[in-house]
Putative non-specific serine/threonine protein kinase
Amino acid sequence: MAFHLLYHLCFIVLALLPCSTMAQTSKNISLGSSLTAQNDDNSSCPSPSGEFAFGFRQIEKDGFLLAIWFDKIPEKTIVWSANRDSLVPQGSKVELTSGGQFVLNDAKGSQIWSANSPSTGVSYAAMLDTGNFVLANRNSTNLWESFDQPTDTMLPTQSLQQSGKLFARYTVTNYSTGRFMFSLQPDGNLRLYTTNFPQDSANFAYWSVKNTEIGFQVIFNQSGLIYLTSQNGTILNTISVNPIATQDFYQRSTLDYDGVLRHYVYPKRSTSGEMWPMAWSTSSFIPPNISLSIVEKVGSGGCGFNTLYRVDNTCACPNGYSFIDPNDELKGCKQDFVPQSCNAPADDFDFDEWPNTNFPGLDYEQFQGMAEDRCRQSCLEDCFCAVAISNIYRECYKKGLPFVNGTIDSSTHGTKALVKFRKHNSISKKKEDSTLIIVGSVLLSSLGILNFILPLITYVVVSRMYSRKAVAVPPNYQGMNLKYFTYEELKEATNEFKEELGRGTSATVFRGVLACDEGKCVAVKILDAKQV
Ligand SMILES: *[C@@H]1O[C@H](CO)[C@@H](O)[C@H](O)[C@H]1NC(C)=O
Ligand SMILES: *[C@@H]1O[C@H](CO)[C@@H](O)[C@H](O)[C@H]1NC(C)=O
Ligand SMILES: *[C@@H]1O[C@H](CO)[C@@H](O)[C@H](O)[C@H]1NC(C)=O
Ligand SMILES: *[C@@H]1O[C@H](CO)[C@@H](O)[C@H](O)[C@H]1NC(C)=O
Ligand SMILES: *[C@@H]1O[C@H](CO)[C@@H](O)[C@H](O)[C@H]1NC(C)=O
Ligand SMILES: *[C@@H]1O[C@H](CO)[C@@H](O)[C@H](O)[C@H]1NC(C)=O
Ligand SMILES: *[C@@H]1O[C@H](CO)[C@@H](O)[C@H](O)[C@H]1NC(C)=O
Ligand SMILES: *[C@@H]1O[C@H](CO)[C@@H](O)[C@H](O)[C@H]1NC(C)=O
């Protein structure tokens, strides 16, 4: 986090000229101009009002984004970028060639991106006060506009035409193409989709405009309204209904990394008595409730596998699970415990209860007339069962891994999700004591005795391992409630150390079953030094 902040503070940029040299008089960028990505250099091309700027922003240590951002606010919020999926190193250069081509080359001179403008006719480039960066001809007709190639954001006066798309960024701090898409399709339907990430094809539409007429364009007008119109200008659907004055507020509409399209506002001045803080605030958003909207046939849902959507539409890992990547929660959750064995008792497992939780979709078993206690028991004894759903109609549903579609939904009364987890999870504790082998398990009935006996067992096993000689148990201990094991017995119990449960810095833990003790499960810890 600190790392990211650091780099966000020292955004950067540009070496050369056009804007800086022409500064006050003209904002036009002439043919033959270029800008170079450099650390510790913040020069950039501002728009005439200074509200927007164009240039390189440093995103990671040696990764620059050619971008447009709000330049008068401390956040310097990025609204467009050319190379979101391939950051360029220091020394990379964007150039408006003498032939009128606008190209981004990396430090070695390889082309990373170029504006798909006509091959002739461009006579200058300009960063406009609307946030639009344009290539224009001598008559000031725009031949190319950044507004026509949006990334994840629309600005007032910008519109989205048929076939136009916004793609969410990947995470808050990663600008690359993410998992959600806002699309005005060629057929005129306006939709929000999950994508088949990392491909950008549409997967599941979780919001769409229900209109009978064909949508022609999405307009974000200067009054801060966002709406879909038909070809003759009739408003078919209003996406953002609250008018907000552009002279008083910076505004943007961004498809965020979490799949929500939000209309943000930021006061231009701190006018006393205003209700808006000096920061980006959400004025409106779609869909109204994303957690209830995403139920894909395939895919990991809006939150990733093994997650549940909370009421506030954020993602949660149930007990026994944790985020695969805490900086990228939508990657889903991983199981932190040793999975249940199919031929061992289930006493070690319990359920994390999620009341009012809906879990539509695939169940591998369903039972009618089964009360909650029996539903629990059924899932507990079933090594395939990761989640059981029990409701007041005495229905019981079982789900395996990975599970998806879990959503807390206050309208589903009397349905609860029971997520199975291991109660005493030695692996997740990761405590690596330096004592050697063996861990007793259920076998030793009293802790007092365990404390007393453990050094002995340790001694026994260690000697076995290194000497492979039989060790006699001192007579004093005979007849007490304890068992000791030969190396061969442990080898047999663990099926020649086959099933690894976990690994520490100095030892590896294996699962074993004791033939002599009604098949009880044990964990056998073994020093790495020894060769099996
Ligand atoms: C930019 O160049 C065009 C065409 O030469 C000219 O009409 C326009 O006034 C220039 N703009 C500025 C801000 O200098
Ligand atoms: C660049 O901007 C950052 C943040 O505003 C500032 O701390 C830094 O001194 C600037 N660097 C230069 C070379 O102007
Ligand atoms: C500029 O406009 C004039 C008159 O409208 C036209 O004749 C000319 O072809 C235009 N030039 C370019 C480069 O578009
Ligand atoms: C952003 O996320 C993508 C997709 O996971 C990854 O390939 C890329 O390296 C990330 N970029 C940064 C700057 O972390
Ligand atoms: C924005 O659109 C609304 C609805 O069509 C309209 O009432 C308003 O006048 C428009 N604002 C501008 C500046 O065009
Ligand atoms: C626009 O077209 C629709 C039919 O496609 C029609 O019902 C409506 O009256 C038209 N509106 C205008 C302003 O022409
Ligand atoms: C999620 O829900 C949808 C809609 O009910 C369903 O088609 C899909 O199979 C579910 N996914 C899983 C993995 O259960
Ligand atoms: C989303 O749905 C949940 C569950 O029905 C509800 O508690 C919550 O208030 C809803 N949120 C919005 C913004 O509608």
